[in-house]
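ingest -> validate -> predict -> emit
validate: passed (alphabet ok, no gaps, 98 aa)
predict: started
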Amino acid sequence: MEPRRTSSVYSDTFELDDLLLRLTKQADEQYDTAIPLILQENMTLYGKLTATRELWRTMLGLMRELFELADQLHALLRTTRSTLEQERISYLANCTAF
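emit:
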């Protein structure tokens, strides 16, 4: 049985050097292309994050205002009930006075 012949690509160091050079060049080109795309995506995501944070801050501010308004309405309701009760008592007292 005859030994296998070595492939000319692997046995020729000049071919391997050329292959390595081409692969390195291709990797560099991919790197040069990928970095700007990644930076652009990063900027896009950062913009969305900033917009989302601003929206949440606005919503939080509105919720705080709603809670304050609810507290004010609750206080107004208590005052109104108290005033109505006092007026009712006064009215009934005046009705029995006649």
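Residues 25-97 form one domain.
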